[in-house]
Amino acid sequence: MALAQTAIPSVPAGKTLKLVAFGDSLSAGYNLPGSAAFPAVLEQALRQNHIAVEIVNAGVSGDTTQGGLERLDWSVPDGTDGVILELGANDALRGVDPSQTRQALEAMITRFKERKIPVMLAGMFAPRNLGTDYAKRFDVIYPELAEKHGLVLYPFFLEGIAGDRALNQADGLHPTADGVKVIVRNILPTVERFIATLPAKS
What we know:
Blueprint: E1 17-23, H1 25-28, H2 38-48, E2 53-59, H3 65-75, E3 82-86, H4 89-93, H5 98-114, E4 119-122, H6 132-139, H7 141-149, E5 152-154, H8 177-197
Parallel strand pairs: 1-2, 1-3, 3-4, 4-5
Helix pairs in contact: 2-8, 3-5, 5-7
């Protein structure tokens, strides 16, 4: 609840923050119209809170962390003020070795740092059917990378909708439009806290 009480960040008049939601189908809006996808709904919520922002949807359905690393430079243009990094769910679904997922995520974070683009990390948990050992190795990736690199972390992107049939599509993996609204409502205070850390636009 402390995060929800964070002061609303201000953007200078006439300036618009340019954020990129860099992720997989959860960002892309699988089976949803563009206006119902996570980046568009989040942008609307921020604007309702008087934060001038544009959020580019750089989600690619089926993308893994390795795929994200390979397309990073052309997916996130120069001049981007911040990135919400949401990748890793497909790694877990495919049983990719968590050490490879960690390595790819860290390489992306490092690349963004080199380009002076701040990162907010959206975490993921491994499906429990992959076993306790896998889950332990996977789940710690995000908090450990956030601590190491000083990133704002949202621990679990699907918080509030995971396992809820009413908020997920028939596949049980992708949120409905209502599910996206729940994700945005839950993540909004953390995104606002991230925006408050961004360098002031001149």
